[in-house]
Amino acid sequence: GVCGVSGDGILGARAALHMWEEPCISGEHGSGAVFFSGCPLRCIYCQNYEIAHAETGKRISVERLAEIFLELAEKGANNINLVTPTHYTPEIVQAVTLAREAGLTLPIIYNCSGYEKVETLRQLAGIVDIYLTDFKYMDREIAARYSKAPDYPEIAKKALQEMVRQTRAPVFGESPSGEQDMLRSGVIVRHLLLPNCLQNGKEVVRYVYETYGDAVYLSLMNQYTPLPQVKNIPELNRKVTEREYEKLIDYAIDLGVEC
Description:
Helix content: 25-40%
Number of helices: 9
Largest sheet: 9 strands, mixed
Number of strands: 9
Radius of gyration: 18 Å
Order of helices and strands: EHEHEHEHEHEHHEEHEH
Structural class: alpha/beta
Strand content: 15-25%
């Protein structure tokens, strides 16, 4: 399929404490991140190219995945963070169920591209506590050009609606490791600003804020890095300027988004 993964079992790329997510996700002890190989999108600027194209990874069983969740919990993880999990949803449901039966109490994070079927997300009701989702595009042409997904805006809108329906308003509290103000339930919408795509970024922010207000949190990111695969695409072969990012932040504040 589009995800690029075939064969039996789960292809996992990495599992470790991740210190560089949003502060209310990583905290000081880290997020228990499990990176899955493969991806349902084909973004030409992908920041995790080898993992997304299933060029690296190790085959594991559902039972082993459940053990990994428990091992991350023992290391002090604030949560279990499933990165690019879409194509392993049935296995993840099984693994989380097994881990909870064995004593796992950490929040489960579904860290995805936003390009999700509502039918898939409904399988995760009662399994996932936090949706950490991208909202990449409101512009169909840009979505087609950079991710081969002209239907991305429509798909992402429906997916986000289901995520919010499941989690409702964000809930913060103390993590099992004793850290305060950690997200325990809710939705964070990420938008990675791309060079020359400021208007698209503004449209994403406007849609999310005007539709959901404070029911979701926005994470506006400026760390786009031009990797070798975009060296022949001039408009993507540079970093986002400080001015571009400031304009996006100012626009969000003018709309009423609170920092």
